[in-house]
Amino acid sequence: MHSDELFIGGSWRGASTEQRIEIVCPHTEATVASVAAAAPADVDRAVEAARAAFDTGAWPRLDPAERIAAVRGLANVYGERRPEMADVITSEIGAPISFAQRAQVALPWTMMTAFCDLAQNYPWHESRPGRYGSDIHIRREPVGVVAAIVPWNMPQFLIVTKLIPALLAGCTVVLKPAPESPLNALLLAEMVAEAGLPQGVVSVLPGDGALGGYLVNHPGVDKVSFTGSTAAGKAVAAACATNLRRVSLELGGKSAAIVLSDADPAAVATGVRSASLSNSGQICNALTRVLVPSGRADEFTDALAAEMTSLVVGDPTDAATQVGPLVAERQQHRVRGYIETGQTEGARLVVGGAEMPDGLDRGWFVKPTLFDRADNTMRIARDEIFGPVLTVIPYADEEDAVAIANDSDYGLAGSVFTADTDRGLDIAARIRTGTFGVNQGYTMDPFAPFGGVKDSGYGRELGREGIDSYTDSKSISVAATQDPAAATAGKGA
């Protein structure tokens, strides 16, 4: 890989400084790679290239069909290199290889194709009758140079949900991956070059939060698309407000799974495990609050405990592993701190705990941990822990369950488990979130918009709305054509 160079404007170039980013394997705790770190001067070069490609280049002026064909070409290259991408992601963030193959790589590849399908039927040009007799033409035009900033937990998925719709819309993109996971982004840059996308259209700049701040504030950027923590998102929003810059924010979550009394405990346990503990719980829409009817609380808790204790924790390169390490030692300490806080606050530790999993003496692992007998005021019920920690909270009745679910600073996702689908849909309509699942976690369907409300951010990715966010609507009014006969008669009079 191009570990000593940066992908700037479609070409591999030397970095402006000798700063490096060391990538440490979360399983072995050994350094697996070192790559060049971008500096502000490199951002300047990348934005300049993106600006030139957008302002005077061909890309934003192509027929949408030509851009769709180019992105399909990138998808073809991506498809051929999926195994390599999965291995890279497992090595740098510790995602179990089975999950990396399925969700970290196959899902983004599928979404590339889905976005192309959406773009084929997207209303790039639209005509409508005006109120005052004029013809109205609507053009959806690219918003400009996009700064795309992504975290480490689902790097390719989060890159694709920004990069691909932006490209299809005709934008140019400067991408900043997280310092924990630059390798997969650099591998994608190789694919961009192999696919032959035009010069200036894509840049990839690994760097830290300070570099991201410089990119967000760069005067050559027209839109920022950011995924990360709520605290960082607020800083991004403030910077964009100062500069009157478009911004989309996909931030944190503390989603609730409402379990109704008619639900099957085993099915609930399986559904919650899949929606909450994949990627070691490092997913923003994880169902980390499990709300159960107080009369059946022990039954549902026992089913969850059985499911969690059966999980295979260990080497992420082993296909049998279901839970790997957390991304960094600091994250391990953070999650363990929340486990200790939960016990101090009075919740009952059912399974798991702050100790290393059995049989492991290295790596940044945390046991899958379940609390019950909790209430919604506890920190483990309010803060985004971002690890394999679930909290069971009992409720009195349906109204109480809805109130608890809505009593959160976040509003990204949620679910309801019930034998009655209509009842589940009624619950879904009463929960203030951007996404919701009935008898499952939210599926991240590429044809449906994804995003949150409240402290989970604003703006939408995926679906037609994912393309909308990278376009500006231009309205053109055309005066009604005058009847020639009437004009002639008027002159004679």
UniProtKB/TrEMBL annotation:
Keyword Calcium: no
Keyword tRNA processing annotated: no
InterPro entries attached to this UniProt entry: Ald_DH/histidinol_DH, Ald_DH_C, Ald_DH_CS_CYS, Ald_DH_CS_GLU, Ald_DH_N, Aldehyde_DH_dom
Alphabetic keyword roster: Oxidoreductase
Database matches in Pfam families: Aldedh
Enzymatic reactions: an aldehyde + NAD(+) + H2O = a carboxylate + NADH + 2 H(+)
Residue ranges constituting the Aldehyde dehydrogenase domain according to the UniProt record: 12-476
Enzyme class: oxidoreductase
Top-level taxon in the UniProt lineage: Bacteria
Active site: E250
The protein's Enzyme Commission number: 1.2.1.3
PANTHER family cross-referenced by the UniProt entry: ALDEHYDE DEHYDROGENASE, ALDEHYDE DEHYDROGENASE-RELATED
Membership in a protein family: Belongs to the aldehyde dehydrogenase family.
Protein name as catalogued: aldehyde dehydrogenase (NAD(+))
Species this chain originates from: Mycobacterium deserti
